[in-house]
User: Fold these one by one.
Assistant:
Number 1:
Amino acid sequence: MILETIEKENDIKKVAPEKWNILADEIREFLIEKISVTGGHLGSNLGAVELTMALHLSLDLPNDKIVWDVGHQSYTHKLLTGRRAGFENLRKYGGMSGFPKRKESDCDCFDTGHSSTSISAGLGLAKARDIMNQDHTIVSVIGDGSLTGGMAYEAMNNAARSKSNFIIVLNDNNMSISENVGGVSKYLNNIRTADKYLDIKEGIYNTLKDKKMADPIVESIRRAKSSVKRLVIPGMLFEDMGLTYLGPVDGHNISDMIRVFKEAKRCKSAVLVHVMTQKGKGFLPAERHPARFHGAEPFDIETGLPSHKKEKSNYTDVFSTVMCKLGDRNEKLVAITAAMPDGTGLKRFRNMYPDRFFDVGIAEEHAVTFAAGLAAGGLKPVVAIYSSFLQRAYDQILHDVCIQNLPVVFAIDRAGLVGSDGETHQGIFDLSYLSSIPNMYIMAPKNKWELSDMLKFAVGFEGPIAIRYPRGEAYDGLKEYREPIRFGRAEWLYQEKDIVLVAVGSMVKTALGVRETLKAKGYNCSIINARFVKPIDTEILYQASKTHSLIVTMEENVASGGFGEKVREYLDQLVEKPQILNITLPDDYVEHGNVDILRKEVGIDAETIQNRIEALVK
Ligand SMILES: Cc1ncc(C[n+]2csc(CCOP(=O)(O)OP(=O)(O)O)c2C)c(N)n1
């Protein structure tokens, strides 16, 4: 195995060029085998094997720097920088992260997880290098999907002014998680299929027969600032922006890429190298189903099928079904996703109502302001975005939706701990960032039926409103508790005395477990399902304060700005105050790992909660 001879960065340079393809095969085999067990981002990594090898062969790490956009495609980079053993525990608690982490290796120069940040970060690193009189190479690797995010253009706009070398590698596989969308994607696709420049170049060589004579002509066409150039040279969009464009180059041909990277390193400007790759390359199921193998669950290598049975229906499925039903009843209902038609469950809505569905690319800010426009125009938009990705659209929510009090529904999936994707993806801030915004209201369902009821309520609501629900299996207990949703009203699930648990969304199920243990130990214990995080139901809290000496709030969100803080603020005003305990996530980022382990680790599991309660009431 050649792969086993690679113990650290730059060891790849000892591999003879004729063995490069064998090494690429070994890397693919290794990734398929490991990810089939742990799960992970398979397709993007299989597509970037040769590209990563070519970069490592062209650069000197860790002196030179590679910034990986999103970072989900960095597995080969991890393999080539001494982290082979880490794949045993990839994305597990305490194990290796699925994304670049500076604390994991000095070959990871910048942490990522959310898309379209790499060019800005790379440009910053390049400027720092220049100011500190250093001379290493900085490369930002960005996918065509991530190039649909606005930040990438803000960065290129600034990179165009660069008078020193800065390399952007566009890893173009013609796919985001699903099909890529929009004008730039179409433009890239034209380059992919046209090969105009190469044809013309061939033509000039063939006509003049003499390469020495032909070269200056080809070069002057390249340099020409004329419309002729536009006709013959691909990548003019980038050249017109002020970047030097090189390519397109075959992203599975290592020697070709090394040649182009050498040329790119000579430029005294920002240069974009356009590399064409195939997502999932070398594993047929991933080539055929790139969306399914983008972020794969453990699977059977022979068949490509998931090795675990699908969980019972999850919240995304419920959202998906109810959206389709509501779409039928309400012709004004429109749905928006930012590059996640599968992940958010909106694919079915797209299939049923293609004219009322919008995939805007990885453009959360645009998605929200676009929804505000749709609402101002008289429609009823539902924007479905994961909790952590919606963080980027804070100003759009505030400035474009909430100041004008526009009726936009925010369906916030993956709220709470998400598990193996780690810090960048945990949805643990949405209650805080949303509840600080006037006119915004927030709900969280206790079970799958309540999600359905809340979505119907939200679609009928005359202002901005959000529903946040977690990843994974939808809770199907408490079916009998199905009082209609009333604005700002919570519900009693058990009404006793002494201790009351006031739980938000996913924490209701945990509260049932806590109550059961407390009851077995002889305590009285009530449960309130909060339903609304904003506004809080002060009436029910007042009532509870009269009959309970301890109020315990429970939420899967950080403390600051969360539900517990609001409840405490209210109770503090009362003359007769009960004791209050806020169960929240700590003021910290939560790493990757199995959600049950993480819950214990951060202290929101039933056992920890009940111990804390007992310590207070004893
Ligand atoms: C802000 C943000 N929104 C959504 C995502 C989810 N996401 C992860 S990768 C990806 C697609 C990236 O496509 P591309 O850049 O082309 O990389 P590929 O996987 O095709 O190599 C998306 C939408 C994200 N990471 N960040």
Number 2:
Amino acid sequence: MSLDIIQRICTKSGCYATNVRQKALPPAQQSSDYRTFYGQERPLLILHSLGCARDSADVQAEQWDNPNGQAIAHACVDARDGKTRQTLPWDFRGWHAGQAGNNVAIGVEMAESLSIRYIGRTDRFEILDRNKARANCETAYNGAVELFAYLCQMFGVDPLAKREINGKLFPEVLGHCEWNRIRGVSGHTDPEHYWTQLGMPYTMDTFRQAVKAKLEQEQADGPIYRIQVGAFRNRAYAEAYLARVQEHFPDAYIKSSDE
Ligand SMILES: [Zn+2]
């Protein structure tokens, strides 16, 4: 597995601080949005593309790591090296897809090429260097496939499965564009607007197929090695121990045997 996840948790972001506050409360006292996200069986996985000419996930993380920021995803895939910068622990509720989306989904952004220039505040762009832009796009796409295969394994998501939410059927791995399209909400055409305008042979369907193929390949490659640091009957002891582990490894999380 050539997956690389670089920890760049945005502990200065308002979103991170809000999650820390919410997680310290008993579930009954958490705000319903956060309780919904923490309490779900497994998250949807939403793929985004930044919608601005920024190829560096480090620069994006810098933008997000801000107490006054209004948006932050769980990770950004770099368009130069294809590696993931993880910006929130996976079990924190992010701010990337509106209230309803944030309640049910982990969000991942792909950085875009510097060789494009957006036209005003639209989703249209000019292409300054077509070969370079397409190479950056391919790098981010392949990095996102690796990351989503990893997330599917971690959370037990089948990339080709669908789930009903409020009477509508959503792919468990989906693009921000699909999240809005299925709900009948306009705006947010990412990531397909980026692929289409660059003439790439990518759609959310090819993405899901690629994630599925990657998962099957990894299963054929052999076992995954997980790290465990404790086991408790009492949830409160587990929470207290987790808080200590998270001082060093912020994306550590609890997995219950009845989940
Ligand atoms: Zn988006």
